[in-house]
Amino acid sequence: MYQLEAIFQTRLDRTLQRVSARVTSRRRTRAQNAAVGGAAYSQHLIALAADLVPVAGSSYATIAAAARSAGLVPVIESDHVHVQLFPAGLPFVARLIDLLAA
Ligand SMILES: [Zn+2]
């Protein structure tokens, strides 16, 4: 898990070097995730996701493109760009969340 988190962080750092964005959500507990209406198997629960909002000169599209080129999976939501390490719906990620989410 630690190594996956480090890989995610490296890719997030690369994304943030390429575009101006503010991180508004990162790791969440199950309680925090439920409070914001997060997906039951959100990668936020295992610190493998972040939410980004554009600042000065960037846009949802430029953030998504930078994240994709850094090796993350972006999802443009109504008021932020969610980025995660793995594509949605992978059974092994659900197992990790079952084992590791706080
Ligand atoms: Zn998110």
Major sheet strand order: 1-2-4-3
Structural class assignment = alpha+beta
Bound small molecules, by name, code or SMILES, are: zinc ion
Query: Secondary-structure element sequence?
Result: HEHEHEEH
Strand content: 15-25%
Runs with pLDDT <50, length 5+? none
Q: How many strands?
A: 4
Q: What's the overall average pLDDT, rounded?
A: 96
Span between termini:
13 Å
- Biggest sheet: strands, sense, closure? 4 strands, antiparallel
Enumerate how many helices there are, as a single number: 4
CATH architecture classification: 2-Layer Sandwich
Overall helicity: 40-55%
Overall morphology: globular
- The CATH class, by name, is Alpha Beta
Calculate Rg over CA atoms: 13 Å
Q: Which key terms come to mind for this protein?
A:
102 residues; alpha+beta; Muramoyl-pentapeptide Carboxypeptidase, domain 2; 4-stranded antiparallel β-sheet; 42% helix; binds zinc ion
Topology summary:
Layout: H1 2-18, E1 21-25, H2 30-35, E2 49-54, H3 60-69, E3 73-76, E4 81-84, H4 91-100
Antiparallel strand pairs: 1-2, 2-4, 3-4
Helix pairs in contact: 1-3
Bound molecules: zinc ion.
Zinc ion binds near residues 25 and 82.
